[in-house]
Amino acid sequence: NQYHIQQHHQQQQQQQQQQQQQQQQQQQIQQEQHQIHQRIQQEQQHQIQQQIQQEQQQQMQQKIQQQQMQQQEQQNQLQQQQIQQQQQQIQQQQIQQQQQLQQQHFQQQQQFQQQQQIQQQQLQQQQQLQQQKQQQQQHAARQNQLPSP
């Protein structure tokens, strides 16, 4: 009987050990699954972070492009302003040239008028001289015609 009891007891111990081993195996499997799950989560998080970084970088690039476009527009406006200023300067120069030409023309007219006046004065002087000569001749002739005393 004692032998049977011992055998029975041994069998129980063996069963307990087997159960313990199974439990340990299950725990190991659970741990491994948990680790795998953690890895997957970590990878997913890493991917999400990368996506966020990429999006941020894209946004930054877009901003930089917008700024460059704005700068180009400003430069274009400046160039247009410069061109307008140049055109204005050219117009002003043309106006000044026209004014100078007009002044020269006016001066020439004045000189011409002055020359005409001088010529008229000279003519008048010549006429006066001729009149004086005629008067002197007439006077001399009259004196010649007078009867001598």
TrEMBL record:
Kindly indicate whether the keyword Coiled coil belongs to this entry. Answer: yes
* Record key words, sorted: Coiled coil
Q: Where are the coiled-coil regions?
A: 5-146
Q: What is this protein called?
A: Uncharacterized protein
Q: Which lineage do the record's taxonomy fields give for this organism? A: Eukaryota, Metazoa, Ecdysozoa, Arthropoda, Hexapoda
